[in-house]
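Example for tutorial group B:
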């Protein structure tokens, strides 16, 4: 009997019958063999991966937001990761995943959807409308204060860096639109604030404010003079509607202490009355006199006299992106010591082409200054 068993085993081996003797045992950890191992805990939402034989989470399936890994689908609803519907959806997801995308914008969690959302980093107070990320401000309408420090010359005493919004506490506001609302008396404790702005720019200058924000109005603002102070006047924009129209400006030194005067105008118009277009000033649009400097950036000047008039005592004149329409010279330059004005990408229409007292070119007149006309737009 023992001899027969040995012969039988050898016979089966040589005939390929090993599987019949030693049947393979399925791997109990391979879900292809045992599918139910993936469904033992239904809360895990697992399915079998046929390639690896291992359980994996079903694509797009979830039990909680901990399984929703993308800000495009941060909500677990009916076991599926779906788009956000409200800011609260993104707030919970951002906290869990340590991502600063707390606002639902276009069905996706984003860093911001409006400028008011950018409060975490004061260096990036504005919301980019394309990327929906916070960035430095580029214009005043991106700031609640209406003033953005776009370069180092703007509001140097504000205590903020370029690209930051200038705080309201560093600004004097001027708005003549509502009678009785604006402040005539600078002694009022809230005079010059956004809730009680000055009625005229002269009031803000007299109060010693260096950064002045003028709101657009259907009424022109009265002329004003800066004596021995450094002042920047910022409007709503050169082409804003309504614009901030000023009937003329003058900058000069303090005649007593002989302190230099420095005036910058940004985003305003010079004219005598509002309209479309505003009426021209009755005299010269802007005057730069003794021991003073004048900067005109992105403004419009309409003048029945000269657009800009500088005496021989004017120490510096800068004109950038400015449109000038004047009955006389667009700009009459007489800088002290043969100084050179800086004129960049500006356009002039003018009535006077020549003057026997000095040289002239394309609406310019200068006596002691060498004028670079290469960047003038005719």
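The residue assignment follows.
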């Amino acid at each position: 009997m023992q001899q027969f068993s040995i012969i039988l085993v050898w016979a089966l081996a040589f005939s390929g019958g090993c599987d019949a003797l030693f049947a393979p045992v399925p791997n109990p950890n391979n879900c292809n063999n045992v599918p139910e191992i993936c469904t033992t805990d239904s809360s895990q939402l697992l399915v079998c991966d046929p390639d690896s034989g291992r359980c994996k989470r079903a694509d797009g399936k979830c039990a909680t937001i901990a399984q929703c890994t993308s800000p495009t689908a941060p909500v677990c609803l009916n076991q599926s990761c779906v788009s956000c519907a409200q800011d609260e959806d993104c707030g919970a997801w951002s906290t869990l995943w340590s991502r600063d995308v707390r606002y639902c914008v276009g069905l996706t969690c984003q860093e911001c959807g409006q400028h008011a959302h950018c409060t975490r980093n004061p260096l990036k107070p504005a919301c980019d409308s394309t990327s929906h990320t916070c960035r430095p401000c580029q214009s005043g309408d991106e700031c609640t204060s209406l003033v953005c420090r776009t370069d180092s010359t703007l509001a140097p005493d504000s205590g903020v860096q370029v690209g930051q919004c200038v705080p309201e506490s560093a600004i004097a506001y001027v708005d003549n639109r509502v009678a009785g609302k604006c402040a005539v008396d600078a002694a009022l404790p809230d005079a010059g604030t956004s809730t009680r702005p000055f009625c005229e720019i002269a009031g803000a200058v007299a109060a010693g404010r260096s950064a002045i924000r003028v709101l657009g109005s259907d009424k022109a603002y009265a002329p004003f003079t800066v004596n021995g102070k450094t002042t920047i006047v910022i409007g709503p924009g050169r082409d804003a509607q309504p614009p901030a129209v000023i009937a003329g400006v003058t900058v000069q030194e303090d005649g007593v202490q002989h302190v230099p005067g420095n005036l910058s105008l940004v985003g305003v118009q010079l004219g005598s009355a509002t309209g479309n277009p505003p009426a021209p000033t009755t005299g010269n649009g802007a005057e730069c006199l003794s021991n003073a400097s004048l900067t005109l950036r992105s403004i419009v000047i309409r003048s029945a006299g000269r657009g800009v008039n500088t005496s021989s005592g004017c120490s510096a004149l800068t004109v950038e992106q400015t449109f000038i329409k004047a009955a006389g010279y667009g700009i009459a330059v007489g800088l002290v010591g043969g100084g050179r004005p800086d004129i960049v990408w500006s356009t002039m229409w003018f009535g006077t082409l020549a003057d026997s007292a000095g040289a002239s070119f394309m609406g310019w007149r200068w006596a002691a200054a060498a004028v670079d006309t290469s960047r003038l737009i005719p």
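Helices lie at 2-14, 18-21, 87-97, 201-206. Compare this with the pattern of hydrophobic and polar residues in the output above.
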